[in-house]
Design a protein that fits this description.
Length: about 150
Amino acid sequence: MDGRVYVPWFSVGETDEDAFETLEGARRTFVSVLRERAVTWPCEPDDTLILRPEETGFAHLLALLYVVTPGTHDVSHVFGAFFDGQGVLGTELHDQMYIPLQGSVVGVHRVAGSPARCAELTADWFERILRGQAGNWPPRGRDLHV
C-alpha cells in the first residue's frame, strides 16, 4: 500500500469521512450520478466536493468543482451547482463564501428535471469547464491547462 488516503469523487461534507450514506432520495441520486461521471475527468477527486445545506447555510445541496492551476495546488476558480431536488443553478462562486460571482467566466447553468437528469446535465457542464469549452472559459489571454 502506498499510504494515500482514498478520497471519493464528490465527497459529502467537510469532515474526514464521506457522509454519502446520510443523503436521502433525490440528493443521493444526484451525487451518485455525478460520481459515476467524474471518474473520467481531467482532475483529482479532491477537486470536487458536496456540501449539505447545514454546512453552507444555503437551502440547497451544493456540488463544487475546484479548478487548480497546473503544476500547483492553487485553486484558480470554483464552480458550483446548487441542487434543489428538481433543478440546478450553477455558476462560478467565491472561493471561500461560495456565493455566485458577478460576471462568471462561464455564465449561468440552469437545468430542471429528475435528479438523475439534473446530475447528467451538470456533469456535462463541469466537463465542458474542465475541457475549456464552457462559455467564455478560459478567459481570453490566459492559457489554462487542466
